[in-house]
Amino acid sequence: MSYGKYNWSHWILSASLGIVFFWIGVDILRHPDSWIGYIPTNLPIHIPTTSLLKANGIFDMAMGLLLVLRLWPKLIAFFAAGHLIAIIATQGVDAVIIRDVGLLGGSLALLLWPKRHYHRSN
Fold first, then answer.
1. Residue 45: C-alpha distances to residues 34, 40, 108 (Å)
2. Residue 33: its pLDDT value, please?
3. Is the dihedral of CA 106, 107, 109, 113 positive or negative?
4. CA pair distance 89, 79, nearest whole angstrom
């Protein structure tokens, strides 16, 4: 999809969000001990936290790759926003919450980006 004169800004937003999500996913899979404490222990599902962590890392990597490639940007932005809202809701205020709020803002910007083409009016 072409975004007219806003094509570069859309690409930069999508690619930068994608890089962050992909990077976090890789880091989760490479250093699970650093991330395991972020998995809530009171979830109503009975899946081992290590399995949830791996699934989260793969999910983050997939979202990141799809955002960089600009495949289904609105759908991926919807999932990214939901994912970040869940993280913010379960983690509360901590040292890295501002990063998640910023990523949520970028995800919502992509989700709400207008679909129509932009043309200069003379």
1. 22, 11, 28
2. 96
3. positive
4. 15
